[in-house]
User: Fold this.
Amino acid sequence: MANEQRNITKADLNRKPPAERTNIADTQCKGLVLRLTPLGTKSWAFYYWDRQLQKTCWITFDEPVMLSLDAARSKADKLRAVVRDGTSLSQEAVRAKVLMQPRIGGMLFADLYTVYIEYIRSDAIENPDGTTGKKSWGDIQSLLQRPLALWGRLLASSITDDMVVQLLESVAKEKKANGKGKKVTANRMQSALYVMFKWAKQPGRKYVTINPLADLDRVGGREFGRERVLSEKEIKTLWWGLDDPKLPCTRRLALAYKLILTTMLRPGETIGMLKSEINETKDGRVVEIASTRVKKMRPIVQPLNSLAGKIVDELLSDPKLEDALFYGRTPAAPMIPAHLSRMLSGTEFHDSVAEYLGIAPFTPHDLRRTASTIVNGSGADVNNLNLYVEKALDHLAGSAVGARYNRHQYVPEKRIVLNVLDRELRRIIGKSPAKLKLVA
Assistant:
């Protein structure tokens, strides 16, 4: 991460995304910082010394529209005046103020959001693996940002079903960079809001008396399972295209796509992979993923075939590497699955990887489905091949109760599957072409 200290200008608000996360501290307005990310996100923040907590605290300007330079400086001046007498702006202080409000009718939506996010992150929620806090709290927090920007200053009890539907319909009608709508996003947002209001309505809280999302149909409509599988021509184009130095994504992300295809792991399990999870066994290398990082809340031991091994070797050779193989803002922080999706579909600041390579739109999870299809269609003379593929995909077989009693990892069987995948992928990709011909 790069840190700069100088007079922020209006040109900084229009600059292209930097190569790494950058914080620019404004010398004209003490405490004001402009944050810039490689994905093109810009935000204002204010830092100050909190006398109550005896530490430096940061406040992000949660505004629905990016403030102008003058407006940001004006807001920072007001915050500086507030903290000058020792007043704390920290989350802890905000929470204490929220909980002192009348429980029925008096809580702002922004305050309800604050208390709810804190709750789903807390040890009040216990997971089967012994950890605490809802694992998807980050996704929930992201989904609630739009409602927060729109309703933050309104009473939570004043939110109506008509207001909810109007918001969700506007989200569903929006277009992604690939031209598709955001109907699934609208459904996920609807679910997050429903659960939050249901939580707020429970006895002992009563922050609201009704749930405005109760009995609402899914605004985004019915969702259908995806069936996209990349063709052999697309696989070859993708594999060698990910080595293109002009590819509109980082080298680490390019390797992440390859690793999903060669390991059959879920995108989230891949992008969060750690150096400490890579281990040598007498039969070869494996990645041992703790249950805390697995969708089904159970550990995974996945063998690495030769293609996956080469990818891991390149990642391990990074001199900046700490533990996260796919690190983001700092070497210690893993990327998130959203990075994989955004770069494939493109954003307003970055071209689509798929479009750059001339491949029809696909998702990171489609690579997993493609790998499964390759092995199942390989014609390999292996008994129970279909069953072994399901084990490599970490799919439950039979009843959920039966799965709880069967904790076998099927590593030898998975290794057979992944070696078949390795052989088939090598056949498909062939040798590196002198000049890549993109799919028409």
Remarks:
- The mean pLDDT is 85.
- The domain at 232-429 is CATH 1.10.443.10 (hpI Integrase; Chain A).
- The longest helix spans residues 411-429.
- The radius of gyration is 24 Å.
